[in-house]
Amino acid sequence: MSSSKTSWLLGTLLISILCFVSWKHSIIDVRGAFLLVGRGLLLLGLSTLMVSYFYPRLRSLFTSNTRSTSEYSEDEEAKQRQKQAREELQEKHSEKAFSYQESVLRPRQESSMRKKEERFYRMTGETWKLTDGEQLGEGESLGQSAHEDVDGTPNQEAVRRRKLPESATRLHPKPEVPPPKRVVVLPEEPAEDAEGVVRVALRCPSGRTIHRRFLKSDSSSVLLDWLLKTGYHPAVYTLCTTYPRQPLVIGKDISMGDAGLTTNVLWQAALTSCGTSCRRSRARM
């Protein structure tokens, strides 16, 4: 600011000296000299006004051009840095996605496909496809076969390799024929007034009581058939006496009369599992 003031003062002084010298060597009078000085000052003021008005605008114009150029270059650099950062981030995401697919998604898909394949082969009955299989000619190692086939022809080697294992050529035994199923047939129930009638009342574990008439000449094993027919297997349940608590003597060669079942006695047998006592009550008819 001080330098500009100094320059203006020096300029004014030089112009004044120039005007004085011009007036001294000129033929103009004092009035003409003052007019000349006034015109010079007016010209100086106009030039100063024009410089003060146009100089800031010209300066701002040039500085704005240089500033816009620098800002444009800075924006380009920022865009380049952003683009590079985005590319690096995208590469990192791509690597993470690839590693996740290889370590997680692919094993899951392979496991799911194996399970579906195993389920399909089990449903179609082709479970042998799930095994690795075995080479024909079991019991022979590759070294032994190679050693044995040194002097053999290719045909002989192929015949040896086509040798089936003993498990495939062994004759399987015929399956045993199951014994015929025994059909329980009870004798016909005699009439109440028939001779030698034995009336038996069977109390089941469920609480119900079943009555049936037999002949004392019938085999006592019929009682076990009746027990089985009722729904209680003799291997699990048995008929017992009251006191002493013993199983009822039953056999094919023992009739009901020999087992103690008489015509004038009503037997009420309680059904129980093996190892548990039964009850029998006697009542006069």
UniProtKB/TrEMBL annotation:
According to the entry, every stretch annotated as the UBX domain falls at 193-269
Q: Which residue intervals make up region (Disordered)?
A: 69-118, 131-182
Membrane-crossing residue ranges in chain numbering: 34-55
Please indicate which superkingdom the organism of origin belongs to.
Answer: Eukaryota
Q: Which GO terms describe its biological process?
A: ERAD pathway
Query: Which Gene3D superfamilies does the UniProt record give?
Result: Phosphatidylinositol 3-kinase Catalytic Subunit, Chain A, domain 1 (3.10.20.90)
Indicate, by first and last residue, each region the UniProt record lists as having compositional bias (Basic and acidic residues). Answer: 78-96, 105-118
Keywords on this record? Membrane, Transmembrane, Transmembrane helix
What would you give as a GO molecular function for this chain, any one? ubiquitin binding
- Give the PANTHER family listed for this entry: FAS-ASSOCIATED PROTEIN (PTHR23322), UBX DOMAIN-CONTAINING PROTEIN 8 (PTHR23322:SF93)
The name this protein goes by in its record: UBX domain-containing protein
The source organism is Oncorhynchus tshawytscha (Chinook salmon)
